[in-house]
Design brief:
Layout (H helix, E strand, L loop, with lengths): L11 H13 L3 H4 L2 H12 L7 E7 L4 H18 L19 E6 L10 H10 L20 H7 L3 E9 L3 H4 L11 H8 L11 H4 L11 E5 L24 H7 L3 E3 L2 H9 L7 E4 L19 H23 L5 E7 L1 H7 L3 H24 L3 E6 L3 E2 L2 E3 L19 H13 L6 H13 L7 H10 L4 H16 L1 E3 L4 E2 L3 E7 L5 H7 L4 E4 H12 L3 H9 L2 H4 L10 H6 L8
Helix pairs in contact: 1-3, 4-14, 5-20, 6-21, 11-12, 12-14, 13-14, 15-16, 15-18, 16-17, 17-18
């Protein structure tokens, strides 16, 4: 399948307007008014737009206390390794994000002060408030064009990288439009812009007669189960679709590069040529927590990101050389499982995914340094868990408790609950005392009460089991949690541009500062790329794959129906 990349044009007059508005400072709304003027000026000026790339990173569920927790963990490790601990040099260590902190973000959705990831991501992608559960639609359920779609209209290459299902709320909100985040089968179809043959009503053969034109040039993550037909239950292709559409096969037949193995992604790094579009799905559902990840089975967030950056950079370079244009790229990267560990109140899994996110930020920053035409922005959609470092009555928390933990609560509970259902040789009690506590949770001096607590978790449902197991570690570390859901806390805002960057990059950095609403961040992303969300919206509503967008939910009040759903349905 051929991709036609349009030459982008840069309005020199608009750049002067943007610099002037930014120089006023403080007023985000005013600073973000440039794109409409830019579009008009571009039509008459006819100057090539200077190349610009945007890396937008979302650490799902990551609050400022989580940052402090992970920082304290690393500082504690450095303290332990210092010969002279009285110098306190370890306390000066900061994370990859700390030096990039420029402000904070308000996160509420349109219908509640506590957002979910769907509304939170839509605020960034569409620069609009919407109700919890909404994916790329406004409060009335109407599609809104996203910054990714607007960028693609202007000739940018685009990418999504996540450790969740690629159909999950955050990545979906940048390239799909449904009234309920649970419509993941439909989201998968929209990500591929899947158009079955109008003359074929048989799902099994419709895919073969269909056309696929992916809405995103590069997608890496989990969620293969939503792309393979119902009944495909081999080890690699466990389906969770409600129908027999084979989107994976349709994508391959339409020329999409499809991969499912880490080795295949590694091979692309040295490949003489890399063919876009690329769809890499490395797990049936969410990808593994970093603490559990088999290093040869699934790529890490860092590995997916470095591959995506290299592939998109090489592709834009090739496009520009062949067409005398100056196309850049837009890449959204999500550290998704930070949030899920927060839901489980699992501090060790939460920590390991934060550390991996930091490594990924470091890699993105290095890319910016090597390519000064790139801007890096990082934030979160919301905070999860309401973490507290220190629980009553003592003034302390113990980061060293997290060091020997080797498994997530999710992994522990999957095994515990399976054991409670069969009649194996080893009892649950012995397994907990001999394996779970000392080897998986790093507790070698467990009390009888701790053993009883974890043994009791084996008979609980999955959600309660995970929170119970995580709670044993949390209690030892003196970490508290106020909820298994989200909170309404502000989240951090981080931005970085190379010191060798152009005036454009330096001016753009000034748009991201102070306390911003999440929709203001979305508008700033579009302003930097000089794209029109309004034009994207017009294009989206004409797209065939969006016309069947949503059989509306039975309730007529979309907002009130989603606001009070329990947190288990609202990651």
């Amino acid at each position: 399948m051929k991709y036609i990349h349009h030459r982008c044009r840069f309005p020199t007059a608009a750049s002067a307007i943007l610099v002037l508005l930014l120089a006023l400072g403080g007023n985000h709304e005013l600073a973000l008014a440039a794109p409409a003027d830019a579009a008009a000026a571009g039509a008459t000026q006819g100057h090539l737009q200077p190349k610009r790339n945007l890396i937008f990173m979302i650490s799902d569920g990551f609050g400022q206390t989580s940052e402090a927790m992970a920082r304290g963990f690393v500082q504690q490790q450095q303290q332990r390794n210092q010969q002279n601990q009285k110098q306190y040099g370890y306390s000066q260590w900061t994370s990859a994000l700390d030096s990039l902190l420029v402000g904070s973000v308000r996160t509420r959705s349109s219908d509640t002060w506590v957002t979910d990831s769907a509304a939170g991501a839509t605020a960034y992608s569409c620069a609009q408030k919407t109700y919890n559960g909404a994916i790329g639609v406004d409060e009335g359920g109407r599609p809104c064009g996203t910054v990714l779609e607007a960028a693609r209209l202007r000739g940018y290459l685009t990418g999504l990288v996540t450790t969740a299902r690629i159909t999950h709320a955050t990545p979906a909100a940048f390239a799909a439009h449904v009234v309920d985040r649970d419509m993941e089968d439909l989201i998968a179809q929209q990500l591929l812009q899947f158009a079955p043959s109008a003359n074929n009503n048989n799902n099994k053969t419709a895919a073969a007669a269909s056309t696929v034109a992916p809405a995103v040039d590069l997608m890496l993550g989990g969620g293969l189960c939503h792309f393979v037909p119902n009944g495909a239950n081999s080890e690699k292709n466990q389906s969770c679709r409600a129908d027999s559409l084979d989107l994976w096969q349709a994508a391959r037949q339409s020329g999409v590069t499809t991969i499912t193995q880490k080795q295949e992604l590694d091979a692309l790094a040295t490949a003489a040529s890399r063919k876009l579009p690329l769809l890499g799905l490395f797990a049936p559902g969410h990808m593994a927590y970093e603490i559990d990840r088999a290093r040869t089975a699934q790529p890490s967030l860092l590995e997916m990101t470095t591959s995506a950056l290299q592939i998109l950079h090489d592709a834009t370079t090739a496009v520009n050389n062949n067409s005398n244009s100056s196309s850049g790229f837009f890449l959204m990267i999500e550290g998704a499982r930070i949030d899920m560990a927060g839901h489980d109140n699992d501090p060790a899994a939460h920590l390991r995914d934060i550390l991996e996110y930091w490594r990924t930020v470091d890699a993105a920053r290095s890319f910016v340094d090597a390519h000064p035409d790139t801007l890096l922005v990082s934030t979160s959609d919301h905070e999860t868990g309401g973490m507290a470092l220190g629980i009553d009555p003592e003034y302390l928390w113990n980061p060293q408790v997290l060091d020997p933990v080797a498994r997530s609560a999710e992994s522990v509970c999957a095994r515990l609950r399976a054991m409670s259902d069969d009649d194996g040789d080893q009892s649950v009690d012995d397994y907990v005392a001999e394996t779970v506590l000392p080897k998986h949770l790093g507790i070698r001096n467990a009390t009888d009460a701790e053993v009883d607590t974890v043994v009791g978790a084996a008979g609980m449902d999955s959600k309660r089991c995970k929170r119970t197991v995580g709670g044993v570690v949390s209690k030892r570390a003196h970490i508290g949690w106020s909820t298994g859901g989200h909170t309404g806390a502000d989240v951090g805002l981080y931005a970085y541009g190379s010191s060798n960057g152009s005036q454009l990059q330096q001016d753009a950095l000034r748009m991201f500062r102070g306390n911003m609403d999440n929709t203001q961040v979305g508008r700033a992303l579009a302003a930097y790329l000089d794209v029109s969300l309004e034009d994207a919206t017009k294009a989206v509503v004409r797209r065939p794959s969006t016309l069947a967008l949503a059989k509306r939910r039975p309730d007529t009040n979309l907002a009130s129906a989603s606001a009070n759903k329990p947190y288990a349905d609202h990651n």
